[in-house]
Amino acid sequence: MNTRALILLLIQISVSVFGKINQDSIDSNIVIAKVERKIDIATHLVKTSTLITLENKGSSGIRSFLFSLDPSLKDNLSFLSAVTKENKDDKLDVKETNVAGHGDKRFYRITLPTTLDAGKTVTVDVEAVYAHVLKPYPLEITQAKKQLVVLDTNLYFYSPYVTKSQTTVVTTTNSNIESYTKTKPVTQSDNVITYGPFEEKAPFSESQLRVHEENNSPFLTVTSMERVIEVSLWGNIAVEEHIDMKHTGARLKGPFSRFDYQRQQDGYASIKTFKTSLPASARDVYYRDEIGNISTSNMRELDESVDVELRPRFPLFGGWKTRYFLGYNVPSYEYLYYKGDHYALKLRFVDHIYDDMVIDEVQVKIILPEGSKNIELKVPFDVERRGDEIHYTYLDTLGRPVVVLNKHNLVEQHIQDFELHFTFQKHLLLQEPLLVVGVFYFLFLAVIIYVRLDFAITKDEAKESRMRVSSLIDEVQSAHDRRSALYQSYDDAINKFKSSKDVTAFSASRKKIDADYKQLTQQIQNLQTQLKAEGSEAAEKVAQLQRLDTLYKEQIGLAITAAEKLVSGKLNRQQYLDTQAATAAKCDDTYKEMESLRAAL
């Protein structure tokens, strides 16, 4: 056997032995005297609260016990915590572990605050949150239908120990329960189903618990999220989130009718709006998508937070997706602490995006100042830290270090602070200002030298005239483009007036557009006068462009008059459509002529 093979064999033996040493075993001296289990399915999350009374039947003390996840839920766990009944503020240490002979199960070792002596009992409250457990049934619904979901889980407390007595209470969204498991003893009162007590259940007992209920709560899931935190030692921390969302409830069956949606207020399971909570010091908040700014949001500043009501461009039905960007700034003095050259950033890992949020995957990027070293991370839960990256921005030379963190399956309980420690030499703060000063110094020096040198032999009046004409034509084209954009503004104002019938708002909007239009038209007229003074043939083309614009403006006036008559009832719908078609045809022809003439300038 060669040396390499021997080393590999030793490594395999070490890993095997180490794995066996770290395996837990089930202590038969532990008995669960009583279990009170509560399952809350009132939202799209499944939240469980399990009050466990442990009894030590052995002759020696125990320091920890095993908590096993139900097979129907083990792949959907988002968060797990435990406290004692006597001290709910002090969380117990919870670590995932393995148990010999039970490789198909998922266990957590919960360490007690003190040793549980022989014959004594202790009560521990274990809270867990599971995502994507509730399944829509049926999988597809029409726009006006209500959403029904199914919970399939274990009726009994899934434990590695003998359980003497247990009860299970299921809380649904409302009293509209289609069906539920009738294993006795069972009672139902309004939206609460109570099972048990069940006596003397063996370890890992299983029996189906199925609840089919109406649940129209928002089944909103953040499928992917990128959170970028850029730290500046000049007093600001910029945060931007790129969020992909999906409605993971029952898919929409058939077409979507906005008319029925607004008139009948149906779409019970749809999502119209949601509230995001930002830090109380957040400022310069923006909400946009790939199209541009989304103006349907509202922001309210409270004492402890800044609440932003976000309304997507369209309501979300089952299977529909949306993507948006949310950003803000916070002052660094509230989250960045320092002593000498040592700095510590303490900030939320994620913000509160919406109530009962679920984040399938998040990537947090923390961009530190250029020159930061000795980076150390402290997080309140397990995250995956990938290799640090380098980010370049204005005036950077070596680039800024970026700490990249990844985590899957997050819920509200993960809104906790992380700490990032690093060192930074303060004299490096002068690097960028000195670089700017140097660049401008050499730029001005080059300009001074250049303007003092005259390379021309004679003055070319014709060339200068052509340059002036070219500059004037560019200004005409730019002004015309902005004026052409106002045509669409007129159309938007007319369409909004027809739908809202708000004469005051229409008059105000039209007055603003008219003012802009008049200013641009006068600007083009002045440019035409200057072109004429230069003796350019383009002056006549600009005059023709002005005449065509006048014709287009007349058609807009006819469209406005027709819309006013339609709203006031002086014109029926068919007459309005005929008038609108004729006006639109003339506008299209005139617009094509103007564009052709503009291109010929």
Share of helix, binned:
25-40%
How would you state the average pLDDT, rounded?
88
Strand content: 35-45%
Count of DSSP H/I helices: 7
Indicate the multimeric state: single chain
Q: Structural class given helices, strands, pairing? A: alpha+beta
Q: Would you identify the regions where 5 or more consecutive residues have pLDDT less than 50?
A: 13-21
What's the gyration radius in Å?
35 Å
Largest sheet: 8 strands, mixed
Distance between the termini: 86 Å
Q: Which term fits the overall shape?
A: flat
The overall strand count is 31
Fold blueprint:
Elements: H1 3-21, E1 30-40, E2 46-56, E3 62-68, E4 77-84, E5 93-97, E6 107-116, E7 121-130, E8 135-136, E9 140-141, E10 148-154, E11 163-171, E12 177-180, E13 186-189, E14 192-201, E15 208-214, E16 220-232, E17 236-247, E18 251-252, H2 258-264, E19 274-279, E20 283-288, E21 298-301, E22 305-310, E23 321-331, E24 336-339, E25 342-348, E26 359-367, E27 373-378, E28 384-385, E29 389-391, E30 400-410, E31 417-423, H3 431-451, H4 461-500, H5 503-533, H6 538-568, H7 573-600
Parallel strand pairs: 1-11, 9-18, 16-26
Antiparallel strand pairs: 1-2, 2-7, 3-6, 4-7, 5-6, 8-10, 10-15, 11-14, 12-15, 13-14, 16-17, 17-23, 19-22, 20-23, 21-22, 24-25, 25-31, 26-30, 27-31, 28-30, 29-30
Helix pairs in contact: 4-5, 4-6, 5-6, 6-7
